[in-house]
Sequence to fold (294 residues):
Amino acid sequence: MAEVLKLSKLEAERSNRNETPTASNQRLITEMAGDDTDHGCCGIFLLGISMFFIIMFFPITIWACIKVVQEYERAVIFRLGRLAKGGAKGPGIFFIIPCTDEYRKVDLRTVSFDVPPQEILTKDSVTISVDAVVYYRVQDATMSIANVENADGATRLLAQTTLRNMLGTKSLSEVLTDREYISAGMQNTLDEATDPWGIKVERVEIKDVRLPVQLQRAMAAEAEAAREARAKVIAAEGEMNASRKLKEAADVMSESPNAMQLRYLQTLTSISAEKNSTIIFPLPIDMINTALKK
Fold:
């Protein structure tokens, strides 16, 4: 009851000082674990008995008192059920009192896990299956042990619900085109929610978006029709430009009879080069034109 009243008093003081949740949680852990070492008469008696046996059976008992944690680990010590003074220990060697101390190791390395595929109904009523990957690490070992029972499991469940809630407000086109924006939004939401647990979410990536087969066929047909339409428009524009150029060439050649004759001879040359055939034309063009004029 005294602990509950103490926590309520601390929360009231935080609200009066307008502290942020992160600072408040850190201060709560510090005030609960740091300076308050009053274990009561029974606790002091047990500590005294433990110290007596440690001294009496020294140096055999020293092996039960010395513990080692790696560079990437921290040890959170509970002494008679309360957080020991000084916060998390490590890396390296630290000491515990047998029978009264209990410690838990916390890994500070970055951990990644896959969010299972989630069936999500988008804003435009399309059912899609989306999976993602989340990268996080423990930022505060004490808070990850004292504030949540299973930090890893809680983060996994929160990532699934956050993915559903985030994509449920987006349309299909936004899900397919704005993956980076959605990933950044998920990261900020998860990081804010897991901050009281001492968890830092470093990165969130959407791996795959799977659409129904019928929708895939409809989108493929739509894309094919759009490509055909663009091809027809491009062909029509090409024909229009070619006709304009032909008209300009005809106007230039009509102004110069010699150009028309050269073009005629060039055409005959190209025809004779393509096929081995004999071409007979009765009279030169100049003689025909002279006769027509007379």
